[in-house]
Amino acid sequence: MPSDPILIDIPTELPGERVLLRLLQDGDAQDLFEAVDESRDHLAPWMLWAKAHVQVQLLTRLAFAQLAANRVQIRMDPRNVRSERVAQRAGFLLEGTLRNASIDAADKPADRYIYALTRQSYANLPWA
């Protein structure tokens, strides 16, 4: 376990089997815009969700394997069914609801679900 987590090197890229998770770079903008723009109608229902479970897996692997985390959690608005499905598909368990823990887009108090995965549970997942 790292003695000083602030000094841990975080990788700039997380390669998966069929995806590379990384920050967008300046050179990506035009190609990304053109690809999305010409397929916007077809992609609309899937934008941001198509690879969300893969992204969660990559970030979870990073947390447990390289950052020596004991626990990873995902917070979400209970009304966000797609986020909840992503957490469930990745093997995270609902631990509870934080009532009025955040402010929503309408400036109203909003609950948050807490889904979590412990090191022990992670070790038993087929994708771990």
Determine the N-to-C terminus distance.
Answer: 19 Å
Strand order of the largest sheet: 3-5-4
Number of strands: 5
**Continuous helix count:** 5
Low-confidence stretches: none
Structural class: alpha+beta
Mean pLDDT: 88
Report the sheet-strand fraction: 25-35%
Helix content: 25-40%
What is the CATH C level class of the domain at 50-123, in words?
Alpha Beta
CATH H level, superfamily name of the domain at 50-123: Gcn5-related N-acetyltransferase (GNAT)
Main beta-sheet annotation = 3 strands, antiparallel
**CA-based shape:** globular
CATH architecture of the domain at 50-123: 3-Layer(aba) Sandwich
What is the third-level CATH name, the topology of the domain at 50-123? Aminopeptidase
Task: Write a structural description.
The chain is α+β, with helices and mostly antiparallel strands and 128 residues long. It has a domain at 50-123: Aminopeptidase (3-Layer(aba) Sandwich). It is built from 5 helices and 5 strands; from the N terminus they run E-E-H-H-H-E-H-E-E-H. The protein has helices at 29-38, 40-43, 52-66, 81-89, 119-123; strands spanning 13-15, 20-22, 71-76, 93-103, 109-118. The strands form 2 sheets. The protein has a 3-stranded antiparallel sheet. The two termini are 19 Å apart. 11% of the residues are buried.
